[in-house]
Amino acid sequence: MKNALGVEIPEYIEGLGELKPFQGVWESIIGDEIPSTNIVRTLKAKKAHTSKLCGDLKEAVQKCNPFDGMTVTFHHHLRGGDGVLMQTIEILDEMGIKDITLASSSLTSAHDGLVPYVEKGMITRIFSSGIRGRLGEIISMGKLKHPAIIHSHGGRVRDILTGRIKPDLSVLAASAADEEGNATGAHGPSAFGSMGYADIDARYSKNVIIVTDNLVDYPCVPGSIRQHFVDHVVKVDSIGDATKIASGTTRITKSPMDLRIARIAATVIEHSGLFKDGMSFQVGAGGASLAVAKFLREDMKRKDIKGSFMIGGVTSYGVDMLEEGLFQAIFDVQSFDAAVSTSVLNNPQHIEITCDQYANPNNCGAMTNKLDVVVLGALEVDVDFNVNVITGSSGEIRGASGGHSDTASGANLSVIVCPSFRGRLPIVKDRVHTIVTPGESVDVIVTERGVCVNPSKPNLAAALKKAGVKVVDIKDLKKEVDAMTGIPAEKQLGDKVVALVEYRDGTIIDVIHNVENLS
Amino acid sequence: MTPKFKAQAGTFESSDIMVLIEPVSEEAGRQIDISSTVMLQFEDDIKNTINQVLDDLDIQNVHLIAKDKGALTPTIKARVEAAVKRSLGIQEGTM
User: Fold this and answer.
1) Pairing with A496, which of A23, A307, A448, A455 sits 20 to 30 Å away (CA)?
2) Residue B35 contacts A, CB cutoff 8 Å
């Protein structure tokens, strides 16, 4: 069957069940809800004054009675420094557990060690918002038994609430925790800020283990994760590489290209009609995307604009803007550098939120639905404004869906910033390799050679032209770029489906086919 | 014409190409070794561009090594021309 974007979607996949095709950004919301079943919370009990502390992670895992075919979940707040996910998988492997479904909120460079476990069939299913590195390559080559499912951040919450992902064991790292399992990422030697992605696992998993390198006296404050969801607590020597978990402050790019794109994007925002007191704003942490914040900050000061809130994906740059009074509050689901942890801990206007509150399409208060402006990156865009942030130029899985489609759908103005070509590869295509965010929810694409406005927003295009912004038809931009770079030969992809891209409402928006012989 | 000296032009920066020329004996023919970050997409294009510059400069016998980081065609042409002229000792202007 074909979905609304013309992609052929299998009706059923062995090991994953029936699939629903994507019908449109808001089509699945009927009335004020998305018709779907929801699961109930696991009932748990513990006798008074008994201890949750375990000697080591292995003991805690054993107490959870792991079994073949179980689902194990993690959060990715430790980013490239995570040492907990691999430790847990190694323990389960030693115990002989197999046919595991791995459902981490994302996977990073710290998880290349999963490759042998996938290859030997110990891990047979993966749900994640991102897959990178060698792991992405071997999945692209078809080494994972069942197709991987790429979900958005908000989609993952929905996946758990609807039982698509059924967590049997959740091992959640914290930079500080107490003996009952109250836990946070806001302080401690390995502080990483918000624990927003872990909340849904803690609430709905059958077995929750808190792992920390910093066991503090009861009670641990703030309780980002609360004790009444936690089964076991483990003190370990290390939860990972602190320097890769969070360090220093995020710097604005010095790349002239990124700065030029960011300058144009800030001008687009200024003339969008949304640049006024009370504006809400979200920006990614990458190159041109974060640089937009730099220019917006200058523009806000120049025009004396006071915004309402920022959400994210929070960097120290956002914290600076909060402290300058440019915004009233930050809603923080994920923090990107060490300086942010201090702000989460000390500034009451810097509010830690759960991923549920951030972006879940199945609730009545997702922050993304209250967002005015979001600035996002792209690996590729196409003439229909679809965006790819998951597969690279060889068709290999090497990115993350993250909150891209969540924020694009909710924001009044979604701005994509990207160069028109990268290292001779044109970024504007007739059709992107993989659609993560549908063009329906993308308003503007900003490149160094001009700004493309979605034809569904003629008033915006007119306003930008009037302000002197170089507005170009995306098809003309494509021709211009192709003439410079030449038309790239496209690699022939295989017939095997190696991953499914799930839209935030649970429907399938695209499929990823296998690539042969990645180096 | 036949290159007399080892010569190079370009850098390893993104969007540039490093071209190395090694002299070979007369009638050895052209040996062109290309590595590129966009090999998959532009291998033939890069090869044709290099051959075209060599044709224009009438270079039949040469060992040319190109390490490409996604250079556009005009960049490739300029780097090959500069490397060849250096190898012939006929480059004009300052070095």
Assistant:
1) A23
2) no
Classified by CATH at the fold level, domain A256-495 comes out as: Glutaconate Coenzyme A-transferase (3.40.1080)
Cβ neighbours of A10 (radius 10 Å) = 16
B45 touches chain A (CB under 8 A): yes
| Complex prediction ipTM | 0.89
Confidence class for position A249, pLDDT limits 50, 70, 90: confident
- Pick left, alpha or beta for residue A444 (phi over 0 → left; psi -120 to 50 → alpha; otherwise beta): beta
Longest dimension (CA), chain B: 37
- B15 class by beta-carbon count within 10 Å (0-12 exposed, 13-18 middle, 19+ buried): middle
pLDDT digit string, tens, across residues B5-40:
999 999 999 999 999 999 999 888 999 999 999 999
DSSP for B10-30 reads --SSTT-EEEEEE---TT--E
What CA–CA distance (Å, rounded) separates A93 from A308? 48
Nearest-angstrom CA–CA distance, A352 and A257? 34
Distance separating alpha carbons of residues A289 and A275, to the nearest angstrom:
17
Q: Is the pTM of this model over 0.90?
A: yes
**Most A CBs within 10 Å, among B16, B40, B73, B77, to test the A interface:** B40
Coil, strand, or helix at residue A311? Answer: strand
Phi, psi for residue A342 in degrees, rounded to 5: -60, -40
CB contact under 8 A, A424 and B44: no
Q: What pLDDT sits at residue B95?
A: 54
At B15, give phi and psi (nearest 5°). 70, 15
Name A497's bridge partners.
A513
A488–chain B Cβ distance below 8 A for any pair: yes
Both tokens assigned to A456: 């569904």
Q: Could you say which of 1.10.443.10, 3.30.230.10, 3.40.190.290, 3.30.70.100 is the CATH number of the domain covering B7-88?
A: 3.30.230.10
What digits encode the pLDDT tens for the residues A390-447?
A: 999 889 999 999 999 999 999 999 999 999 999 999 999 999 999 999 999 999 999 9
**B40 burial via Cβ count (<10 Å: 0-12, 13-18, 19+):** middle
- Give the residue on B whose Cα is nearest the Cα of A488: B41
Q: Which of A157, A168, A148 is nearest to A72 (CA)?
A: A168
Q: Which chain B residues touch A424 with a CB distance below 8 Å?
A: 15, 38, 41-42, 70-72
Tokens describing residue A114:
């999963």
Q: Find which of B17, B36, B38 to mutate to test the A interface (most A CBs within 10 Å of its CB).
A: B38
Please name the residues between 209 and 268 in chain A that touch chain B, using a CB distance below 8 Å: none
Q: Does A423 touch chain B (CB under 8 A)?
A: yes
